[in-house]
What does this fold into?
Amino acid sequence: MAKTLAQAIDKMLRIFDIEKPVRQGEALFIWDEVVGKAISSHTTPEKVSYGKLYIKVDSPVWRNELLFRKDKILERINKKLNRVNIREIVLR
It folds into this structure.
């Protein structure tokens, strides 16, 4: 039996087999924290689907900059998410 609300939620997510997509969705909420103020002011996380994080970028210049930083950002997001991995960042 779950002892805390967090444990009960974790158990429910596992029972309904939705833990992975829910945890991946957390990437939307931590984006600003992971990338910092400069990048977050030019980007908007849109959705997570099948391990891909979709990011809207406000200019081609910033899109190009993020292409160079994508691997490092992906590594930091996955470290923060702990149990669930985002496989790819798609820049739009």
About this structure: Residues 60-81 form the longest helix (22 residues). The chain is about 60% helix and 20% strand. The radius of gyration is 15 Å.
